[in-house]
Amino acid sequence: MQRDTDTWLTDLQSDGEQQAVALDDLRAILMRILPKALSRWLDPADPHFTPLMEDIAQETLLRVLARLDTFEGRSKFTTWVYSIAVRIGLSKLRLRKWQEVSLESFEMGDNAKKPAFTRFAPRKGNPETTVAQINALELVMTGMKEALTPYQNEVMSAVVLQGVPLDVLAQRLGKDRNTLYKVMHDARVKLKQHLTKSGHPPEELLADFKH
Amino acid sequence: MTSEKISALFEMLLKTEPGEISCEDVGAALGEFAEMHQRGEDVKHLMPLVYKHLELCRDCREEYEALLAALEAETKL
Hints:
The complex is a heterodimer of chains A (211) and B (77).
Chain A lengths: L4 H9 L2 H23 L10 H18 L10 H22 L28 H21 L2 H12 L4 H8 L3 H21 L4 H6 L4
Helix pairs in contact in A: 1-2, 2-3, 2-4, 3-4, 5-8, 6-8, 7-8
Chain B lengths: L2 H13 L7 H16 L4 H4 L1 H9 L1 H18 L2
Helix pairs in contact in B: 2-5, 4-5
């Protein structure tokens, strides 16, 4: 059955059979949409793929019902549902991908104590460019240490240099994603100001990586 | 650590501005933003704070890309 936004809301806010039918229909739609939306992050041939899609669809339905009164009508109802579903799905996929990686192996562990340039892999280029890139890296690492709090430094190192998703770091640190985004934002502002004040604005340092 | 990651950090610093919105705010606006993009509207200028956040937040950007894929799949249902 085709429904517009108002019909979805009416059916899902009702009781009994009318709501049950709408939930079944919405689940069926999600089970057709989700595999296409998430196949970039998990191969559909993976044996966990279909059970995971079912889990995501179920969790999405529960969250949609719980938050139905927060739907503002800024998009179609189904678009709003998909936005919830992909967030749930990608969060699960990120946690799954990083579950074997211990917090200690993020940049905040022993690896961080080694001089940064010993772990730096420059692009192949002329020696002058390589030296300039290593110098830029040293300026950044020094700037992070001097301008940021230890916590900001750890979060920025993990997210930017190690590629840890905010979702994963938030779960490991017992924080929420908004809080970590704010930590990252404050760290970026401080590092940008520090580099600029010390005579090495980011645009100048970036130029060393554009050769 | 690769030069690409350091380079990406510099790009992020260049785009950093005092006023940025949260992942939660972006999540609430993402459906509207995606539908506007789908209609060919100039989302960069119509919703600049969401656009900026998506440039700076990999998690939200991936969710936006997945949402666009979902909307694309919906047209083929």
